[in-house]
Amino acid sequence: MYIIGGFAGWPRDDERHNGERARNDVWVTTNGTAWERVMPPLGRNTMPFGARAWHGCTTWHSSYDRSLDVSLAADRSNSDATPATPKMYIMGGGYMGTKGNNVVRKLEGYVDAWWSYDGSVWNRIDYEEGYKDNLYSTNEWSVANTDGRSVHLGKWGHSLLSFHTSVDINMDGEITETNHVAVEVCSNHTGVFQNETYSCQQMSVREDNVPALFIIGGDTVDSGPLVQDVFRSAPGVLCEINGITCSGKGHCGPGMIGCICDSDLYIGEYCNQYNESYHSAAPSSLRFKSDHAFAWALLYCGLLVIHVFI
Fold first, then answer.
1. CA 176, 89, 126: angle at the middle one, nearest 5?
2. N or C, where is the chain less crowded by C-beta within 10 Å?
3. What is the pLDDT of residues 145-179, one digit of tens each?
């Protein structure tokens, strides 16, 4: 069991008192009595997400086994075929409070979404830029109507729930109930290694019981309204890191399939790992040309980096 963030402070008569404010610490327990603080990765002094309270938090697990992750790509990424454990998700929330002379009395809202396997290493799902009136996020649940226009506003006080929905995964125009359907997931080889063969995998999935995240209600900051809307997660929540789908090296499958890498050159849940055991299926002469072109691509990227830093 985990506690993530929240609004807290030491008692005023405690020597450790330094104000009451939103936090971004993470604590874990196996018995509800003995708690241990989860430390950030080596080299970091704090968690990557901003201190917050009144955020949504949940564990997203398989509909059939609470000990398993929902993403089939997570299972495929494990070389020893060990099923992946569920991820924890946090979304939205806000910051206010005091720390020394720094006082924030008006809630500052968040439009972000993060996940973690262990409470220590966190990955951001969405992309965000801008501030206040120019704020933008790839999270559609952050959009609210105020003063006759649509803007992105921090959301807090909402509920984040793990439930299930129905999805036409095999795209036959109907939802198959009670029974599994067969889906063939194939990599779509493009680019440098365009002479390769397709790599396909057969899967058996349910269409009437697909895991999904739901964001329900909440309030928005600044002049935004109290909302009573409901948002359901799309497949992209299993495929994006910082708003980029499958690290730019794959495409997102329907339902809970997750990332499908466009080349066997890349593997991992988000196509973010180089496949050390990869061998091109193309004839040697074509492979030589492909490798040659790939080397030029790397050199060209290197020149771009030099140009940027100069």
1. 90
2. C
3. 888 889 999 999 999 999 988 888 777 888 888 77
